[in-house]
Write a structure and sequence with these properties.
Strand 1 (75-79) and strand 2 (87-91) form a beta hairpin. The chain starts with a helix and ends with a helix. It has a two-stranded antiparallel ribbon. It is built from 6 helices and 2 strands; from the N terminus they run H-H-H-H-E-E-H-H. The protein is 66% helix and 7% strand. It has helices at 5-24, 31-42, 48-55, 59-71, 93-113, 119-133, and strands spanning 75-79, 87-91. The protein has a single domain, classed as Arc Repressor Mutant, subunit A, CATH 1.10.10. The longest helix has 21 residues, at 93-113. It is mainly alpha-helical.
């Protein structure tokens, strides 16, 4: 199995989750919650549907993630003036402060995950993964 790309990607995902939990311990966020929050923090006014598309998850799962972020006061919903049925998501002031800490933790996750790669190899890995994910 060590020569099967999909199997190795799955093992790499498990390793990345281990790194995530090590660096995010105590921050009260899951990998999925962090992914949604990262999109919101870096794209003010993002729509939940866009998050679903970017993360390739069901809109109902995005709603659960966003509800959790709202309950934690990290995110707020604002109405879209042009389309009243649509919510636009923004990081709150508390969320903006939390984002700084989470970004540092995410950087540490990446550094730990790629510690055995050179800078060029790390960039090559990112490029290849992006190519695999391109539809």
């Amino acid at each position: 199995m060590n020569h099967r790309a999909a199997f190795l990607v799955r093992l790499a995902q498990m390793r990345s989750f281990d790194e995530f939990h090590r660096h995010f311990a105590g921050l009260g966020v899951t990998p999925a919650g962090f992914s949604a929050f990262a999109l919101i923090a870096t794209n003010p006014g993002i729509r939940p549907g866009t998050i679903a598309e970017e993360l390739r998850i069901k809109p109902s799962n995005v709603a659960v993630l966003v509800n959790g972020l709202v309950a934690e006061r990290l995110v707020e919903r604002m109405n879209d003036e042009n389309e009243l049925r649509v919510s636009l998501l923004h990081a709150t002031e508390v969320g903006k402060i939390a984002w700084k800490t989470m970004k540092r933790s995410a950087d540490a996750v990446d550094a730990g995950f790629t510690e055995n790669l050179s800078a060029d190899e790390s960039q090559q890995l990112v490029t290849l993964l992006q190519k695999l994910l391109h539809r």
